[in-house]
Structure formats: structure tokens, C-alpha cells
Amino acid sequence: MAVGIFDSGLGGLTVLEAAQKRLPDVDFIYLADSANAPYGVRTADDIYALTCAAVQRLFDAGCDLVILACNTASAAALRRMQEGWVPEDKRVLGVFVPLIEALTERDWGDNSPPREVDVKHVALFATPATVSSRAFQRELAFRAIGVDIEAQACGGVVDAIEDGDMILAEAMVRSHVDALKRKMPEPQAAILGCTHYPLLLDAFQAALGADVKVYSQAALVGESLADYLTRHADKIGSGSSAYLTTGDPKRVSDRATQFLRRPITFTAA
Residue 123 in 3-state DSSP? Predict the structure, then answer.
């Protein structure tokens, strides 16, 4: 049975690649809702409707488990989906809880009360929709106390990455980090709250400084997925992968190949 991985665009490929390396025997189906990307500037209701439609497409393709490899969808739609939309025999999981658990040094599934942690000042870089949802702050409050999060909405970065303009994207990163530092001059850690941003990890690290620990999601989600699948062995398959898009398959394939620096072929969803 395949595991579905969904993103509004190509950012979730960073999660898929990490999951494939960690779980080479698992079948994956990746769906990019390229026709409606980016999600980061949409309303919560719009994001919810689009995310449900995409996840249903993956259910129909045979996926019992879907990872929302999109922080905007995880922030704006996941809880609502889990509370009233996801069928009992299906699972939909998000991407930012594993990151917060790593930040707070809590094991996967640790439901103990929130406690003090070493890191007190955290910078969050994310899309406007993720920032406005305050989902990171809410999930962090379940696990830690006394942590100050300063969020910076990074408008335009996803568009630049999807368009293949990494020079513009890196310039935007420097601008957004400068804006964040005006509000929080000395962050101890930074969360890259978008699955596109691992491609700009070096730019974020350089702008923030070597003393700031930068948390990126792809590897952390891969480890959390591996932990989940050890308890659900029926998800093991042959290691095949399929790539679907609601956009133009040739254009998305070209961008994805540039994105990951290896050939990726998308077909129409």
C-alpha cells in the first residue's frame, strides 16, 4: 500500500526524498497541486477545500496514509480534517509536529505535560498563511513553556523557488532574516516552516549566523514516518514512486528536475 505525500507545489519533494532514503522499500505517490499553488496567500477555507480534494485523490489512488508535506495545509487544514473529514480507516499526518518535537527534545508520541526547554528564543520563517494560523505556537505550547517565538512571513520565497529563480529567493531570504532580527536580534534557533526552505538552508544559516541552530523538516519527517511504519508493517512495498500534478506535467517535471537535480517525471492527476 502506497504512502501519499501532498504539497501545493514542489517543496514536499524534499520530504519525499528524505523518506525514500530512510524507507527504500515503501511505495510513495506524490501529488503537487500546481494548478492552485501557492497556498500561502489563500484563505483558510480555500486551503481546507483544496487540501481535502487533493488528499481524496490520493485516497482514490490507494493510499491509506497521507503526509501533508505542506506547512500551510498542515497549519490551516489538518486539525479540521482530522476532526470531521478523514475516514476512520485512513490517516492524514502533518509535517510540523515532528519538527517541534525535535526542538523541544521530546520523543515521538510523548504526551507528558509541557516543560521548560533550553531554547528560549526561536525564529519562525514560514508562508503568510502558516504565520497567521499560529499553528506552530499552538503545537509548541502543548510541549514546552517559556519559549518566545517570533514569526516572519516570507512572502515571495516559494514563488521564486517554484520559478527556478534561486538568486531572487536567496535575496529574499536575506531580507526576511533582516526583518526578523529587527524584532528578535538574537534568536537561539530558527524553524524553517516551509518544505521549500531546505533548498535555501545555507542562505538562512549564513544570514542568521553560525551560532543559530536551524531546524529543517525533511529528515525529521522521514524519521517520524519510519517510526510510524514500524508499527504498521502493511505499508511496506517494493519501493516504487509515482508523481502526479494538477498543473502542466511537462512544466512541473522540468521544475522538479531542476529542483532535485535528477530526472523527475510527473503525470496528470
Answer: strand
| C-alpha cell recorded at residue 225 | 514516518
**Residue 162: CB partners within 8 Å, gap ≥ 6?**
9, 10, 37, 38, 196, 255
State pLDDT tens for residues 145-176.
Answer: 989 999 999 989 988 988 889 999 999 999 99
Res 38: pLDDT: 84
**For residue 58, what are the contacts with CB-CB under 8 A and spacing of at least 6?**
4, 6, 29, 31, 66
Specify whether the CB–CB gap between 122 and 112 falls below 8 A.
no
- Ranges of H-type helices in the chain: 13-22, 44-60, 71-73, 79-84, 96-103, 128-133, 135-141, 157-162, 166-183, 201-208, 218-230, 249-260
What is the C-alpha separation between 154 and 11, in angstroms, rounded? 14
> According to the model, what pLDDT value does residue 138 have?
87
70 is catalytic: yes
Question: Consecutive sets of 10 residues in the chain, 269 residues long: mean pLDDT of each?
Answer: 91 90 92 91 93 97 94 90 93 86 75 85 92 88 90 92 90 98 96 89 97 88 81 70 96 90 94
Distance CA 28, CA 62 (A): 10
Q: Give the distance, in angstroms, between the CA of residue 224 and the centroid of all CA atoms in the same chain.
A: 13
Q: Is 63 a catalytic residue?
A: no
Peptide bond into 185 cis (omega under 30): no
Q: What was the pLDDT predicted at 127?
A: 87
Question: Catalytic pick from 52, 63, 154, 194?
Answer: 194
Domains and CATH numbers, the chain: 3-94+219-268 (3.40.50.1860), 97-216 (3.40.50.1860)
Contact status, residue 104 vs residue 78, Cβ threshold 8 Å: no
